[in-house]
């Protein structure tokens, strides 16, 4: 059993943060809320998401797992105006999701969860540097790097207490740095890793510009980016594997 | 090269390369290389395929040009090499040898006539998998960290077995016989431009209401690498008659026909010499510089023939996976 009412904004933010990586996902329904963990087919980018029951206007379930085609559910959610409420109700017999937005009703066929790619194990990461910054700074770094290259280096200079972004293209390059005063917080530690911009651009699309992003970095290690959604009643963690750096 | 009649029966769909991301394919190495030696390596210069000493190196160019497509789509190829030649295949091997000799004669003539296009065409057809080709291919694959498996006998049967046992997701071969070897999902056209096609065994059996054994009987009636087909029986008739009479012996009795060694041919498909004892590391971390030195310096392949291929291999393998940290 699953019957919930949620604001269109919250549902869209939730779905968007997963759909930038995968087309289909499993949604775990628990007493505390919903949980989604997914990795892209190449095993490079991962999302780990939790949306608490408190993020819903109403939320009831007796547990279970449903498989969802994200773009279809996003289309349904897209029919609602911002702030409008969306009711989601699972029909156990037909294994369809009943969606209601005021007078608009529809049913969405679910996917057999067993047919969806297995959920990944969380990487075991002990990352030495932590940077807390605004989503708009990530957007700026990604946009600047995208002008010149298809990959981006993220790092922390321990001595200078600086978070920096480097992108080198064939002919042009950009460098962007933020000192302790420009950042919300900084735990300095030696860190430098190279990432594919394709993935980071996709993740950036789902990162709210005004959100506080906690970014953890290491030396040739995956980056972790952690932020809240639904006014703190939900959290999203992205993990992205690095590229091998040629010397 | 198997029997193309099977194509009329097989359920085959094009599959987007992007949808294969993350999968592992057991590639019949000889079949794959043969394609590169005969059709895919385009000949801008006839000297590109042999060294000054006359050793064939088109296989090295083929590997460098063929691998990026797998790696760029995050598909892991496992190359399965043939072990000993199955006795019954002698005929086919003999036939190919004769055909090659014919080509070689024509090649000689074209050379005398100075017809360079014809020479190039024929040269590609006379390529064969010599020991040198097999050895240098394996060494290059080792430098590129691409997994290799040795089949007890036929590579194709071994690749099919690995797909059947779930060790890999697909077998990869042009040969329709992969169906008879019981490969559940077989990718074809891995060397072609564009997307490959996937041959689905269960869907094929469902469509014709046959069992795997019956499909093998149908294949034998139409002709395989191991036997001539029965005159007058095409794929449609074969399906009908096997369904009607249950198995190939029923067909023999009802139609008064016969295929030599049918027991052995059947068991070559249904129970071929294969092994489940295979181990490989699907994480590919190539030493591109060493591979390039091997191809260009040691084997004298013109650097510009393989430059782009090596670049693509390097580019496709710089991305790590998160599973490295779990």
TrEMBL record, chain A:
HAMAP family: DNApol_clamp_arch. Belongs to the PCNA family. This is DNA polymerase sliding clamp. Homotrimer. The subunits circularize to form a toroid; DNA passes through its center. Replication factor C (RFC) is required to load the toroid on the DNA. InterPro entries: DNA_clamp_sf (IPR046938), Pr_cel_nuc_antig (IPR000730), Pr_cel_nuc_antig_CS (IPR022659), Pr_cel_nuc_antig_N (IPR022648). The keyword DNA damage does not apply. One of its GO terms (biological process) is regulation of DNA replication. Residues 5-98 form the Proliferating cell nuclear antigen PCNA N-terminal domain. The keyword RNA-binding does not apply. PROSITE patterns: PCNA_1. Sliding clamp subunit that acts as a moving platform for DNA processing. Responsible for tethering the catalytic subunit of DNA polymerase and other proteins to DNA during high-speed replication. NCBIfam families: PRK01115.1-5. The lineage of its organism: Archaea, Methanobacteriati, Methanobacteriota, Stenosarchaea group, Halobacteria. The gene is pcn. Gene3D superfamilies: 3.70.10.10. GO terms for molecular function: DNA binding; DNA polymerase processivity factor activity. Signal peptide: none annotated.
Automatic annotation (TrEMBL), chain B:
Residues 318-326 are annotated as: Interaction with PCNA. Binds 2 magnesium ions per subunit. They probably participate in the reaction catalyzed by the enzyme. May bind an additional third magnesium ion after substrate binding. One of its GO terms (biological process) is DNA repair. InterPro entries: 5-3_exonuclease_C_sf (IPR036279), Flap_endonuc (IPR023426), Flap_endonuc_arc (IPR019973), HhH2 (IPR008918), PIN-like_dom_sf (IPR029060), XPG-I_dom (IPR006086), XPG/Rad2 (IPR006084), XPG_CS (IPR019974). GO terms for molecular function: 5'-3' exonuclease activity; 5'-flap endonuclease activity; DNA binding; magnesium ion binding. Its cofactor is Mg(2+). CDD domains: H3TH_FEN1-Arc, PIN_FEN1. Residues 142-210 form the XPG-I domain. Its EC number is 3.1.-.-. Residues 1-103 form the XPG N-terminal domain. Mg(2+) 1 binds at residues 28, 82, 154, 156. Mg(2+) 2 binds at residues 175, 177, 225. The keyword rRNA-binding does not apply. Keywords: Coiled coil, DNA damage, DNA repair, DNA replication, Endonuclease, Exonuclease, Hydrolase, Magnesium, Metal-binding, Nuclease. Residues 86-139 form a coiled coil. Structure-specific nuclease with 5'-flap endonuclease and 5'-3' exonuclease activities involved in DNA replication and repair. During DNA replication, cleaves the 5'-overhanging flap structure that is generated by displacement synthesis when DNA polymerase encounters the 5'-end of a downstream Okazaki fragment. Binds the unpaired 3'-DNA end and kinks the DNA to facilitate 5' cleavage specificity. Cleaves one nucleotide into the double-stranded DNA from the junction in flap DNA, leaving a nick for ligation. Also involved in the base excision repair (BER) pathway. Belongs to the XPG/RAD2 endonuclease family. FEN1 subfamily. Interacts with PCNA. PCNA stimulates the nuclease activity without altering cleavage specificity. HAMAP family: Fen (MF_00614). This is Flap endonuclease 1. It comes from Halorientalis pallida. The lineage of its organism: Archaea, Methanobacteriati, Methanobacteriota, Stenosarchaea group, Halobacteria.
């Amino acid at each position: 059993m699953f019957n919930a009412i949620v604001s269109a904004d919250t549902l869209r933010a939730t779905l968007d943060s997963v759909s930038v990586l995968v087309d289909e996902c499993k949604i775990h329904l628990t007493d505390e809320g919903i949980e989604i963990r997914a990795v892209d087919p190449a095993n490079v980018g991962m999302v780990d998401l939790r949306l608490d029951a408190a993020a819903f206007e109403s939320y009831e379930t007796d547990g279970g797992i449903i498989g969802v085609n994200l773009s279809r559910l996003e289309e349904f959610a897209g029919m609602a105006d911002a702030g409008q409420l969306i009711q989601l109700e699972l029909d156990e017999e037909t294994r369809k999701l009943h969606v209601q937005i005021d007078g608009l009703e529809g049913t969405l066929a679910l996917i057999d969860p067993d047919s969806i790619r297995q959920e990944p194990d969380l990487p075991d990461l002990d990352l030495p540097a932590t940077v807390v910054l605004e989503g708009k700074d990530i957007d700026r770094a990604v946009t600047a790097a995208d002008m010149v290259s298809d990959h981006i280096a993220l790092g922390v200079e321990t001595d200078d207490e600086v978070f920096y972004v480097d992108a080198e293209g064939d002919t042009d390059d950009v460098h962007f740095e933020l000192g302790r005063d420009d950042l919300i917080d900084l735990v300095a530690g030696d860190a430098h890793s190279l990432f594919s911009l394709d993935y980071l651009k996709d993740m950036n699309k789902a990162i709210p510009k005004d959100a506080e992003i906690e970014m953890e970095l290491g030396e040739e290690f995956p980056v972790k980016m952690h932020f809240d959604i639904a006014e703190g009643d939900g959290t999203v963690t992205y993990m992205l594997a690095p590229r091998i750096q040629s010397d | 090269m198997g029997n193309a009649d099977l194509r009329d029966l097989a359920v085959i769909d094009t599959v987007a390369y992007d949808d294969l991301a993350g999968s592992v394919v057991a590639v019949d190495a000889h079949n794959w290389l043969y394609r590169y030696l005969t059709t895919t390596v385009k000949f801008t210069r006839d000297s590109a395929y042999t060294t000054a000493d006359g050793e064939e190196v088109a296989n090295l160019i083929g590997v460098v040009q063929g691998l990026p497509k797998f790696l760029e789509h995050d598909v892991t190829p496992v190359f399965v090499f043939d072990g000993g030649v199955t006795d019954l295949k002698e005929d086919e091997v003999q036939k190919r040898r004769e055909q090659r000799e014919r080509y070689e004669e024509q090649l000689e003539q074209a050379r005398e006539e100075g017809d360079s296009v014809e020479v190039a065409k024929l040269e590609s057809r006379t390529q064969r998998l010599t020991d040198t080709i097999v050895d240098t291919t394996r060494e290059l694959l080792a430098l590129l960290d691409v997994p290799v498996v040795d089949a007890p006998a036929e590579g194709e049967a071994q690749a099919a077995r690995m797909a059947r046992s779930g060790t890999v997701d697909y077998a990869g071969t042009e040969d329709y016989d992969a169906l008879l070897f019981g490969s559940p999902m077989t990718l074809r056209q891995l060397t072609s431009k564009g997307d490959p096609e996937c041959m689905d065994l269960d869907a094929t059996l469902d469509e014709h209401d046959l069992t795997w054994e019956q499909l093998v009987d149908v294949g034998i009636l139409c002709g395989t690498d191991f036997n001539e087909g029965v005159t007058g029986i095409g794929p449609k008739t074969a399906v009908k008659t096997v369904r009607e009479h249950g198995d190939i012996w029923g067909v023999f009795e009802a139609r008064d026909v016969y295929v030599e060694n049918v027991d052995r041919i059947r068991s070559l498909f249904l129970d071929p010499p294969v092994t489940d004892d295979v181990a490989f590391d699907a994480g590919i971390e190539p030493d591109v510089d060493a591979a390039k030195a091997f191809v260009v310096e040691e084997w004298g392949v013109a650097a510009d023939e393989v430059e782009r291929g090596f670049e693509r291999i390097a580019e496709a393998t710089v991305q790590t996976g998160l599973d490295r940290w779990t």
